[in-house]
Structure formats: structure tokens, C-alpha cells
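Follow-up to my post from last week.
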Amino acid sequence: MSTRTALTVPRLRRLDPLGALLAAAGAVAAVFLPFVVLKSNRIVPGDPRALLEVLPAWGALGCQVILICAALAALRVSNPRVRLGAALLGVVAVALAVAAAGDALTPAGNKVVRVSPGAGFWVLLVCLGLMATDATTRMRPGPGLRVLLLAVSIAVAGLALAHGTFDHLSVMREYAVNADRFAREARQHVWLALGSLAAAVLVALPTGILCHRVPRLRSGVLGTLNVIQTIPAIALFGILMAPLGALAAAVPLAAALGIRGIGAAPAAVALFLYSLLPIAANTVAGLKRVPRAAVEAARGMGMTSWQILTGIELILALPVILTGIRIVLVQNIGMVTVAALIGGGGLGTFVFQGIGQTAIDLVLLGAIPIVTLAFSAAVVLDALAEVLDRARQ
Amino acid sequence: MISVENLSKQYGATTVVDGVSMVIERNSITVIVGTSGSGKSTLLRMINRLIEPTRGRVLIDGNDTTGEPAHLLRRRIGYVIQGHGLFPHRTVAENIATVPRLLGWDEARIRARVEELLAVFQLDQGAYAGAFPHQLSGGQQQRVGVARALAAEPAVLLMDEPFGALDPIIRAKAQDDLLDIQRRFGTTIVLVTHDMDEAFRLGDHVAVMSHGRLLQYDRPAVLLTHPADPFVSRMTGVSDRAMRLLSLTTAGEAALPGVSDGPAVAASASLREVLSELLWRGAESAAVMDADGTRRGYLTIAAILERGRPG
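User reply:
Got it. Predicted complex:
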């Protein structure tokens, strides 16, 4: 090993290929793209401003030094901890810079002027985010550490938001106007995603177990669910409108429960239907991977069918089933967005309202929480599946 | 005692086990041997009702096995399969405790039994009780499988090709261990194998099956000297049957009173091994010694050869 190190090119001369790409993109963005965009109101085209124009000299200098350090770390440092630290420091620096730009460019008491993060900010943020993700992956953190990292990141961002650090930025301006609606739509979004998932688990898990026990059913049932999966979301909403509307008209109780041709009911039903295949298919796959000898021995020792199912088969299949649940949850969080189109509510309401008004800040007010929710759900469920799989192995 | 009475199993028009009757003695090892598809595994699995017979019945100590729910019957009968079937998500101690837990033993009794079995199967408590099956060698996994089957002190132990997945050296050790265990606990063991050497080595009685029928059921020596059927002769092997016969008798059993200045052999060695030793050394006679070093008598080549002939 030592001879090999001696023979290779000294470490400093080697450039990290991903780091080089990120550093180049970041540099171009920092120099040529506007860091923030100043608009006299929310819908007129804006006036681009560079980093140097919007910050006091010492602030701009500090921010640039940190970004240059991050770029150097991306290019030449191979220790992933250093890379992660540099990337996170960079994220904090650009976030504080954009917040400071908002404060500096907003005249006191003016609620019409909008300061939006510009293309330069977003590209820098993506580059630093990719660098941080790449460094985290190289560190191979355990599931507990990954969840901890996520929790700390969310806590820091939450504290900054609560403190009002970003209050002069356009997205937070939109939030201030829509604060009570935001909480309601966010709850509705989570409720639709989780509720349809829970209903799907209740139906798809037994279905998967049945398909495993009765192989003749397998291709027919999974094939049907597969067909549902191929129907586009909008089309499925449309298909569901007629029967749900008829149901509401015919059964007063259904109408009283809020079931209508449009609104949350068809959205929930559609999400439920989309959720069935991943959970049922993964249940079948998970059960298939349970060693036959273990089940045979369990039966031979006098365990009942129920004891074998709950104590052996489902436990051993759980990591694969959880992978299915992860797919569904992330898919649902994204797909609930479309439910806003048929009056289902959720954060998609802001997205489509923003598109309609060409107010990109309103779109972001919906989109950023959706992406955060989906990402967090993926990290947490991945970690859970890994913990369970490790116990099994 | 297990009485198998006219037991048959049919799947549609195919008869897998065809009218088998046999009495399995208590505290003995009975080996059911046959080629694949002979119905030997099906016969074994009808004893603990993993397969329900089409006709006939099984009595254990005079009680019909259909007199209680199948899963309760199975908790009283040990069961070991090829490839051990250990639960991968449970530790060695948890695996062994499976049936005692099903029977509702209290924790102290379960713990004591697990410790006892780990000691009997030469698995160090500290190193293995908390280990998961994948951390063990193949031989250790197999031992845990047998320990698990014996955990609730069953009077009967059924074994379906238990050593089939082991390599020859570990298999020989596992067979020796099984003989020790049988002597220690007095368990009635019924073992299925396709390996005639294993059948001769372990079985107090050997049952030969072919095409679902029981061809012959007797002591191993009788199978060699008086085969009931040409298939039994083929299974037991014609070319080396004299040597097989010698391998069924130990030096201690055959020793003649007297002394010899030839090489010393263990009383537990088979006549086949003693003969081989004498040929190798060019000696005419051997002194038979007990494990503690006392003389049991002597053996000559002529006396050994005398025992290699039928009748």
C-alpha cells in the first residue's frame, strides 16, 4: 500500500472530476448570473443584481472567500468530512448573503418591492447541495446518522425561518400574505399523502400475502394494479369524477362525508389506487425472499399459520415491504400536488395559483415544502428499511 | 413406540406412500433409506402430520396422532430438516427457545434449557448464545438446528436428511454427535437419508423404501445377510457387503479372551477398521483396549474374517 502511494501522483495534483464540474459551474454562476432579482412589484420583470452590488464590502468579501474555499475543497480535498464541512459552510454563506440582500434592497416599510433569489443563487445552492450530498455518500453514514443530519438541517432552516432571517425575500413575502392558508394546505397535503398510503397498506398488504399464498392469483392481480399505474393522474381524476359524483348524488351520507366528483375525494381515491401496486408487489417479493427452510422448520415445530406469518414471514419481508411504502410515500407527496387542479387542496394550490398569475415566488412557496417533504420521507424510510435489514442479516 | 399402520398417501392418481406398516422401537435410531422419490420423506412427514395420510394411521405410545390439533402434536415431536431452517432474524438462543416459548415455559426454565443445550452441543455460551445464524459455520448451524429440535425434551425426533448439506468430515462428526445425543437423552429418532453408509452407521434398524413401498425393515446386519429383495441387495451394495458387515461389529464385541503382543486397537473401533490396521501393519493379531487402557482381549485376522461371512 505504501509503495503504491509513493508511486502514484501526489494527491494535491489530482483534481476531483465531480468537484471540478461543480466548482466551474459555481464560478460561472457567481460571476455572470444575477445573485438576486429586484422587482418593484410581484409580477413585473425584475432588475438583476450581482453579489458585489447588494452586500456591504466586508460581507461580499467574506462570502466570496468562503465560496472560494468550498471550490478548492471540491477540487483538491479528498477527505469527505472536510468536503461536507466546506459545502455546508458555503450553503450557510449564500443563504445569509441572500437574506442580507433582501434586507438591504427593501426600503423600510415597503411591502410591494420583491427581492427574489436569482439564477446565480440557485445554481450556487444546487452546486453546494450536490457537493454536500456527494460527500455524505462517500462518508457512508449509518442510518441513524443520516436521519440526525436531516433533522439538524431541518431544525437549522426552521430556526432561521422562525427568526425571520429571510422575511424580506419574495417567497417569505408570499408566505406572510398566505400564512393561514399555508398551514391549512400543508396539513391537507400531508393528510392526503399519508391517508391514502395508510388505506393502501391496509388493502395491499393482505392482497400481497394472498398473491404469495395463491400463485394462481398473482399475475392477474398484479397485472390489474399495473394497468392502474399506467393511467395518467389527470386522466384518473377524470375517470373518478363520474362514479364519485353519482355516489354523492345517490347516497346522502356519502355527500355528507364530503365525497364529491371533485375535491379531496377523487384525489384520495386516485392516490390510493396508485399506491396499491408498489406495496402489493413488494409484499410478494419480500415474502418470496423468506427462506423456505425457515418456514418449513417453523411449521414442523408446531407454529400456527398466523404465528409463522407474523413472527417469521412478515418480519423477514419487512425491509422489502418498507421499500414499497417508501416509493409510495414519495410518489404520493409529489402527486398530491396535481390534486390541487381538481380542488383537492394541498400545497399544489400555491403552485397552480402561482403559474396562473405568473408569480414564480408563489410557485416556490408550494414547491419548496413539497420537495423537502418528499426528500425527508425518503431519507427516513430508507434509514428504517436499512436498520431492519441489518437486524435480519 | 411409534406404530405406523397401513399408511398411504396419494396425490390424485399417484401413490407416493403405499400401505406402509412398521413398529419403531422406543429409545432407538431408525433410519428410512431410499432413492429420491421413494416416499421416505413423505412417510416421515406423515408421522408429525406435516402431510395428512390418505389412508392408515400413526400411533405414538398407543395414541392416535389425529387425536389432537396438528400444531400441538408437532410441538411434542422434534423436527430437523436439511439446511437447518434456522430463523435468520433470531439469535441462536432465541432459535433454540422456539418450542419452549410456544409451550409457555417460564423464562428461567427456558434459559436453563438453552444453556444446557449449548453446552451439550459444544457451543460456547458467551460466544454463540447472542450470535445470529449467519455468523456460524455450516456445522454449527446444523448443531443449533438439532439443539432447537430437542429444546422441549421431545420423546421423538424426526430428521429429514439432516446432514445432507454438510461436507464429509463435518458430517462424520455430526453423526458421532447424534449417537452421543441419542444415548444421553434416550430420544427415539427416525431419520431419513439416501446415504446407505449413513444408514448403516446410525441405524439400530434400517427401513428400505422404493416406489412408496417398504421393502425390508430390520437390523442392518440382516439387511446384508438376508436381503428380502434384489433392490435391497443393490442398495446395500453387493461388492463390499462383507466389509459392511464387519463395520457393524465393534472390536470390543468380537474380542476373544486372551492377550496379544500385536498393535493395540480401541474397543470402539469396528472390525473393518481393525482388519485394515492389521493388514497395514503386517500383523496377525491385535490387543483390544478399552478407552481407560484396560485390556479387553485380542483379535486375529482369521477371527475377523470369520465374522465377515453371513450366518
